[in-house]
Amino acid sequence: MSGILEILLIVAIILGILMLPRLTAKKSDQPLKLLTLGFRFTGWIRIAILASLFWLALTGFYLKPWDVHWFPFLYVGVGPVALIWGIYWVFSGFRKKKE
Fold it and tell me: How many Å separate Cα 78 from the centre of its chain?
């Protein structure tokens, strides 16, 4: 039983060494600036993502691609989603080029 206690003691010491400086560090008064990557999820993008996932789930449950129907699922389920997101990707590239 002493082997387990020794391992736990070593883990506690390592956690103490790693966590104590963070806990006792002086907090700065400056607010943190968030890094913006240039793309924000608007409400319409979130709806489109949710609709895409919903469409894939519906066609997956209806066609059951895990049994036999892989090709109809790829044409009816994945095809339209990939096509619509591809068109959006192309048009957003042209829009960023104008800006």
Answer: 19
Residue 73 in contact with residue 60, Cβ under 8 Å? yes
What is the C-alpha to C-alpha distance for residues 11 and 46, in angstroms, rounded to an integer?
Answer: 43
Compute, in degrees rounded to 10, the torsion defined by CA atoms 74, 80, 85, 89: 100
Sequence-distant (≥ 6) Cβ neighbours of residue 69 within 8 angstroms: 63
**Structure-block tokens of residue 19:** 């966590």
Tokens at 72, concatenated: 């109809």
Question: For 48-60, how does the pLDDT look when each residue is reduced to its tens digit (9 = 90+)?
Answer: 989 999 988 888 8
Q: Where residue 83 falls among pLDDT bands split at 50, 70, 90?
A: very high
Structure tokens at 43: 């409400």
Mean pLDDT value across residues 10-36: 72
Radius of gyration (C-alpha) of the chain in whole angstroms: 26
The DSSP string of 4-30 is HHHHHHHHHHHHHHHHHHHHHSPPPSS
